[in-house]
Write a structure and sequence with these properties.
By secondary structure, the chain is of the alpha+beta class. The chain is built from five helices and seven strands, in the order H-E-H-H-E-E-E-E-E-E-H-H. Helix 4 packs antiparallel against helix 5.
Length: 205
């Protein structure tokens, strides 16, 4: 029994010591190239109500309850608040705090008990051939809290996975409407099939 106690104490000390050297910040980031204009995809993301069409959290919990606050749903001051009983969604809000037209959107993102007082940044970079590279990133601080440091070792990769799912859904959404516009607004069977592609099944449940 004494030997087991010694092992437990040693392991605790080692984990504590290792935790002291873990970074006090974390970052999650995912990028994707979308075949649409930078103006169109920027305006899509800059309107928080549009997120209902492609946000991965909407797919995780279809019963999520959403409300919009602030003077607008577009640009600086736009704010969305949500509540959810799903463990991977929770209760939180995000608010657009800075906009650089067609280049960058910065939001405060807060999820109770998970990602508190963090910063989300979207960047848009024009590519050749009328395409745009879209990057979705989130940064936050764990401070000196060793437990939070260990938690974010797994949370950051999970967040990157969700960003990837969201970007794929955004790409399908944008490219579908681009195809529709190119067809003159007429019904395009190929575009319709593309726009209704099966949702990504790698989402964390």
């Amino acid at each position: 029994m004494a030997r087991i106690l010694e092992i437990v104490v040693c392991m605790t000390l080692l984990l504590t010591l290792f935790g002291l050297f873990l970074p006090r910040t974390y970052e999650a980031e995912k990028s994707m190239v979308i075949s649409t204009s930078v103006q169109e995809v920027f305006e899509e993301v800059n309107n928080l109500k549009n997120w209902e069409q492609w946000s991965p959290w909407m797919q995780i919990d279809p019963d999520i309850k959403i409300s919009y606050e602030g003077p607008t749903v577009v640009g600086v001051g736009a704010k969305v608040v949500w509540t959810s009983e799903h463990k991977h969604v929770g209760n939180g809000y995000q608010e657009i705090t800075h906009v650089e037209p067609h280049k960058q959107i910065v939001l405060t993102w807060d999820v109770e008990g998970n990602y508190e007082h963090t910063t989300t940044t979207w960047t848009f970079e024009e590519q050749e051939g009328g395409k745009v590279k879209v990057t979705w990133a989130n940064t936050g601080r764990t401070g000196f809290n060793i437990i939070k440091k260990y938690q974010h070792l797994s949370k950051a990769p999970r967040l990157e996975k969700l960003f990837g799912v969201g970007l794929r859904r955004l790409r399908r959404h944008m490219e579908y409407y681009t195809r529709q516009a190119q067809s003159g607004g007429q019904h395009d069977a190929k575009a319709q099939q593309y726009g209704e592609a099966e949702d990504d099944k790698t989402i964390i449940q």
